[in-house]
Amino acid sequence: MVSKLVNDPHDVVQESLEGLVLLQPGLRLLEDRTTVVRVDRLAHGPSDPAVPVAVISGGGAGHEPSDGGFVGAGMLTAAVTGGVFSSPGPDAVHAAIRAVSGAAGCLLVVKNYTGDRLNFQLGAELAIAEGYRVETVLVNDDVSLAESEDNAGRRGLAGTVLVEKVAGALAEQGRPLEEVRDAASAVVGRIGTMNLGLSALTVPGASAPSFELGEDEAELGLGIHGEPGVRRIRKAPADKLVHILISRIATEHGIRAGASVVALVGGSGATPQMELAIAARAVARELALRRIRLVRLYAGEVMTSLDMAGVSVTLLPLDDADGDSVVEALDAPTAVLAWPGRGVAGPPELATVEGPPHEIGEDAPGEPDPHVRAAIDAACQALLDSETELTRLDRQVGDGDLGQALARGAYGWLADPAEGDAGYLLRHLSEVVRREVGGSSGALYAMGLLRASEAIADGGGWGDALTAAVDGIATLGAAEPGDGTMVDALAPAMEAWPQGPEAVVAAARSGADSTVEGVSRRGRASYLGARGQGYPDPGAVAVVRWMEAVYDLEAAHDQHA
């Protein structure tokens, strides 16, 4: 069985809903049911005048936070949950209607899957026979499928959440059932969603993923249960994938330049927030290129597929007749913690403000020193050439980011080099490192370069500069030789300085080699303990690589002198 954080696969739905009602104030589970209800909206029969219109949704589990996570003031009144990817039965739907519906009636928001449609319809019939007023809207926002007699119709996807929010806001305001139904139906008629899967999903208790997806493949237009999409495509950068999704929606719904839309970016269950934010940025960018006005932009996990990585894009076009009222309903307050629009007050705007200027120092650049400039260029190029090696080593003993971090600094210098004397160049490089590298390596290198520049400015030689740099790095990092850090390469190199450049590089190599069998006591590698043995410290190796480059430059210079 694939590893899951569960007790018994048969109990996942019940136990997850029990956890939900502990986390979301004001919710309860119906006794002997996997149905979440608002405790303040419990009704006493079909003629109870005390409760407003109820909005009820539901479906199979595995799409969390949908649907139970959207129960709360301003959204759903109840959510009926079946098994994983399995519709709840009609009796459960009937019980939910009876629990929260009074004289004002209820609206069922149903996703267009055969099981959901049949069971909610039968549950509604049972309630209607008892005198309850029940209306239904069927959400079919999936644009990947064409309406055809060859399929069961377009499926209900993440756009369902926007329908629930609009209906829930109007119900919270005490609007009559017909008005709530018509508003929800208007949203259903315009909304479009396209899904993209980047990995397969695994059902709790299963021994393997539900489908196979190649390393370089993505599934376009799949459903929320992992059903196959319209086609397999090659993975591509986020901007291009979002372009594909929006193109399909815009074509299907005739969304053209000048239109106004609400956009929802949804994660599929295993999509990091970082990637969702990148996708949201891509949506805003793509709509701007199409000259489509983005009125609201939401992003978050709303309609997931267990542990699948992927993304959905939903577009809701607004028209002149009801656009303002739809936006007001989306903006209306809600107690639901999972609603991604909490705190949204207006159209999204990507804006920056000018920060304080980057100051290298008040001293003039001085007479250009092309030899030092060439040495820095060589060191930076060596770090770029070593990025793959340093990344591989850092994956063994750290978090795998050292190669990229130092490469950012190298690119930063090569893209914006300075001209000036040695002290000025080192100060400029320190600033580039502070700005571009980040992490502990950025702070340590910036400190070393700053101390080296001060030593040169005070009239010291390069041996003095190296000593000052090593002392600054060791003090800031609280490290000393033997701790398994870059100091293991720097300190021996400093000691070997009087013996000449070749001895300096040899000492740095020997110091880096000494970290292979040692146990790191500083930095992220220190958390590994003995598991980090057998690998050199990547920071020490980085020191060796740029020192080798500078030495090679010096040797070539001496040959031509």
Automatic annotation (TrEMBL):
SUPFAM superfamilies: DAK1/DegV-like (SSF82549), DhaL-like (SSF101473). Residues 370-552 form the DhaL domain. Keywords: ATP-binding, Kinase, Nucleotide-binding, Transferase. It comes from the Bacteria. NCBIfam families: PRK14479.1. InterPro entries: DhaK_dom, DhaL_dom, DhaL_dom_sf, Dihydroxyacetone_Kinase. GO terms for biological process: glycerol catabolic process. One of its GO terms (molecular function) is glycerone kinase activity. It holds the Pfam family Dak1. This is Homodimeric dihydroxyacetone kinase. Residues 8-339 form the DhaK domain. It comes from Raineyella antarctica. One of its GO terms (cellular component) is cytosol.
